[in-house]
Amino acid sequence: MEHIVPCQAKRNILFYNFCMINVLFAERLKGLREEKCVSREELASALNVSVRLISYWENAKRECTFEMLITIANYFACTIDYLLGRTDY
Known about the structure:
The chain is mainly α. It contains 5 helices and no strands. The longest helix has 30 residues, at 6-35.
């Protein structure tokens, strides 16, 4: 049986939470984009980023900056908490 020291266990929990937030963000971003009938190209143009970066975000392969998170929330008229999965509205 593997022995995990408290510090390592805490890092594992933080990493898990971080990964879950990234996955929730990816799902919420794609869901909002599809709900509003916005293509990746249109969203990329509005946010001044590449279509590939939108794809990376939607597939949880990259993170966006805090400033971009605010811009996305403003674009979709939703809260940052919603984008990060902290609320359901």
